[in-house]
């Protein structure tokens, strides 16, 4: 891993006049910014600062960013606008570059995908297991779309600059990401609470659905993984019925539908294997 990658990963821009820092591409916030749909993301950080008062331009920030990012920005104290923007080491309180803190960043990069070779191997193993699951092909395809973030949740559509509100209408609380709708939303939580076995008590938290799926693969047996895939698919269908047919599904019905389909499918595929083996 290149030292440059470690330094860039572990550093953050400290804002002086903010003129050369792009709000989307530069690292200036503690976590990546979330934008409201259709806004200008080519702005510079300096554009968000009122030049007269040297204070944050709150209305512009409120119009541009989602709530969590607004809070991240407004908690940054602005210094002297005459000072240049400085790239600072952000991995310890003293902002002092130490070998230990750099080592921790390197470890994380390696784990999250900095080590590209091992990541590719991991991905390959993961998908091999997923494609071998004894679930209907449409469920495997669904899982692949969910992991690739191409499932049309409101948040994914907003990211593609479709002017819609990315929030979940089921709980009216969070952004509707894939992970939210299939795992964290109260509707999903109520369904998972009814599943027997390890999944019922599973309290995995993940930044996105692919990470969640990776953790599931690590913790569940093949049979449990099949139930997880099938129920996720069933929750997604219930979500679509809610938005497009104005029908609310009960958690027990969502689970029952998934389990019945899974049992029927597995019974049929066993019969087919038997029939072909006797030909
Ligand atoms: Zn929700």
From TrEMBL:
<dbReference type="InterPro" id="IPR026960">
    <property type="entry name" value="RVT-Znf"/>
</dbReference>
<dbReference type="Pfam" id="PF13966">
    <property type="entry name" value="zf-RVT"/>
</dbReference>
<feature type="domain" description="Reverse transcriptase zinc-binding">
    <location>
        <begin position="120"/>
        <end position="192"/>
    </location>
</feature>
<protein>
    <recommendedName>
        <fullName>Reverse transcriptase zinc-binding domain-containing protein</fullName>
    </recommendedName>
</protein>
